[in-house]
Amino acid sequence: MAMLYDEFKPLVDLVLNNWTALQLAIDHGMGSSGPKTGQLVSDYITRYCVENLGGDVDNFTEVLEDLMDEEFDTVCEDNSPKEVAIVLLQYFTLLREGKQDELQARIAAMPVCQKGLSQNVRQPINPGDPDDADSSSGDEVNDAPTNGTVPPLVHNQQPEPEPMDEDIDPGWTVVRTRRKK
Prior knowledge:
By secondary structure, the chain is an all-alpha fold. Helices cover 46% and strands 0% of the residues. The protein is elongated, with a radius of gyration of 22 Å. The relative contact order is 0.13.
């Protein structure tokens, strides 16, 4: 079991590093102790899978939803906990069955994440040009191209806030003084 845990832990870290909901919760300080909570969640998920020999998708999805809610006060409405559960269980099954080639192919197909939940994260090695990977930190702004085309939108720009309707009843009443000035 210890060997299975040691082999599966980097895979869990890799998948969790690519889970946007978890990364946003950590980045915005939603966990009680930030990245350390992310590391503890990764350890718990790894131990859960190894001890339950994977388990079924529905139970594992519920575990992931509970962890996000309890540890990060975050409710995922995008069905991502189920997607993460499916991927992790597939990787666990491939690892347990010794299908290393198929497992490595799936890992190589995953996007490379710049951040890690723990220091032991093994990033897949993608053959080819290392500049093909998206290496922007999110703080960079594209310079205007010299060929006269419009630059692509920066993904980190905040959308303009929508104006609030003033006609909506807020559920409380303003009390004004009756004295005349």
